[in-house]
Amino acid sequence: MTVNISIIVRTYNEEKYLPYLLNKIRTQSLYEQTETIIVDSGSTDSTLAIANDYETQIISIEKRNFTFGRSLNLGCDKAKGKYLVIVSAHCIPENNYWIENLINPLLENLSSYSYGRQIGSIETFFSESQIFNKYYPQISNLFQKGFFCNNANSAITKKIWAKYKFDETLTGLEDIDLAKKIYSNGGNISYISEACVYHCHKETWRQISRRFERESFALLKISPEITINKLQLVYFIFSAILFDFKKAFSKELLFKKNNLINIVLYRSFQFWGSYQGNKITKEYNNDLSNKYFYPSKPFKQPSYMISEYKKETLDKMKVKCTALLPMKMNSTRVKGKNFKSFAGKPLYAWILNTLLNVEQVDEIIINTDASEILMKDELMKSDKIKIIERPKHLCGDEVSMNRIIEYDLSHTFSDFFIMTHTTNPLLSKESIGACIDEYLMKKNLSNNDSLFTVNAIQTRFYTKNGKPINHNPKNLIPTQDLETFYEENSNLYIFSKESFLSTESRIGKNPILFETPKNEAIDIDTNEEWEMAESMALYKKRNL
């Protein structure tokens, strides 16, 4: 397919979050139309090895020549796409429609420059989160008044970029500068809240101060009328601290995670940096470049060679994943279904074979009262499989599945667990892998403690007495405009031992809902569902 979208990523020592970003790019609805261009400014960690592993195009820029504008211009010039998506390497898309939502105003000719929402991760300072809330609200604004924009998460047509290009002399705010040129010439800037990313800032106090200093210095050139004096400095610091205190207190967060002291420090360094930058009168030079764009102390070169990234770095990042696959001899509605022939092989063999081919799964535990039957299967020779004989007190239809899970967790150690059933034969390894990636990402970024799969349903619901629940029969709007409801489909659950023990459930306190493809979502519980699933499986086999 022709490349219509070029994704441009600036990098400098971004090994921590770059894999998350590149993985999420692969899951985007418009991924087949994209190319990814990395513009690197001298990384000394595994950034370049990661980029190569994902088959990106890499452009290098020397440190002495780096500015945000210059690096972006290099990437945009290289781009083949009609639409240019710009994203920071430490920004991770929240969903699979990020690109689609971000460029939609460009496709509809509503604007030529758009930017999306940014939210913090679990490591984000509270004050930084308040800045995100202020500038990136939950409601979109397709026809924004003013020229605010942010290249951590933005999109622009290549035609408009080529007309204006980013100012390569600025120490920051190259996005606002270009947006001002567009806006001043009658163009429109759109804000799209649905194009959301996690912005993972983890800076030292000095880095925070330097960031606001360089942006303030850049603002002097863009809008010289905006100034800050000593009196305003004091006012801004104290008013911002008071505001954050009130917000944190209302959310019961003021005395947690060192928020009280961190609020004082963050706002002090923020506005002190802005004040210092506003006072600078000298021209931009290499000394300012080193001060603003690179750490005062150089990063230590890793002991391993870049070419050894996969072997050594991935091993360090590896977490153990155990799959739980409960399997009983008898069943109530479909007699002996787990061992009954399904499209040419026993039903259990379908999901078991799938799990064996999921790269992230290290171990499969089968809790069963039918071990004698299973041991005859060639699949059981896999080193990944561990069979646990189900004790008698856990046998029977009246036993809660939670008790079986509890028993399994006491017999193994793992960083996290996935659970599925033999009755989900159509679930693919790709979907399981995507669920695992989503769980690990959001667990690290937003403190989600579990994941379960769902079916998204948009239809007209009624009570058993025929009363409408979610619509007005007198005003029949299209079903696609109705509120979406989510049905737990029993396909897959992901959780940690800590999450399970604290809630006594597969679904934790802060779960992720993952929508399963409709052609995989069937859970066999009746003879009718068996026939339907088997027909789909046979069709799939014929068309492989």
Which key terms come to mind for this protein?
alpha/beta; 18 helices; 7-stranded mixed β-sheet; single chain; 544 residues; Spore Coat Polysaccharide Biosynthesis Protein SpsA, Chain A; 17 strands
In short:
This protein has 544 residues and is of the alpha/beta class.
Which helices and strands occur, and which strands form pairs?
Layout: E1 5-11, H1 18-26, E2 34-40, H2 47-53, E3 57-60, H3 68-78, E4 83-88, E5 91-93, H4 98-107, E6 113-120, H5 126-135, E7 153-157, H6 158-164, H7 174-184, E8 189-199, H8 205-222, H9 230-250, H10 259-279, H11 286-293, H12 309-317, E9 321-324, E10 341-342, E11 345-346, H13 347-356, E12 363-368, H14 371-374, E13 385-389, H15 401-409, E14 416-419, H16 429-446, E15 450-457, E16 485-495, H17 497-503, E17 511-515, H18 527-542
Parallel strand pairs: 1-2, 1-4, 2-3, 6-8, 9-12, 9-14, 12-13, 15-17
Antiparallel strand pairs: 4-7, 5-8, 6-7, 10-11, 14-16, 15-16
Helix pairs in contact: 8-10, 9-10
